Amino acid sequence: MAGFKDGNQASQIPILFEDNHILVVEKPINMPTQEDESRDLDLLSALKADIKERYNKPGNVYLGLVHRLDRPVGGVMVFAKTSKAASRLSDAVRTRQLDKTYVAVVHGKPSQAAATLRHWLWKDTRTNTVSVVKAGQPDAKEAVLDYKLLGSQDGLSLIQIKLHTGRPHQIRVQLAAIGCTLYGDQRYGSAVNKPGQQLALWATALAFEHPVLKEKMHFRSVPPVQRPWNEFTIPEL
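Structure (tokenized):
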């Protein structure tokens, strides 16, 4: 557990694994992965400050960001503690060797119990929103994910997602495109969600080859026991 002395924003960030090369943590919900225009405490800066304090390091602390989670999303993330580890983990992300699994609670129920979704997504940088467009549109990028239905009740469904690409807001936009808006998603589902509801998307498993030791690493994180997660049983992944 990493502790931070940050005045009004004291944080407790669970450390799942740490060695000389990597740091694996559970990102809290509603915390930016890196500094943004809000200037709220972000995960990368908080972890750097913690490493500096725990190891009494002089000067700047190196911590490489190799993948991201949207601000409302919690769950498992890996950071690189050396430039060599950062390079190798970045290559793993690029070649899709970093295996990321998510769970989400959505409104409704998908028409198929399991499927691969392929869409072309275009991001409007002015509004920071993403939309599904036709293939060939300038600046559009292909987004691919696999999903599996894990359970349904009371108009909600629990979905397991494996990403093949890492596009901004990909899971939220692709599932909304098939009529399964994420619970609590105000940006892409304001018609069915109420203000103040927490986005129900969680990075629940992460698997990769250790960048130096070459051992297979697997980490798991479970969502908080609160609505809507407590309506379902989260399986071992």
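The two ends are 23 Å apart (CA to CA). The chain has one domain: 15-231.
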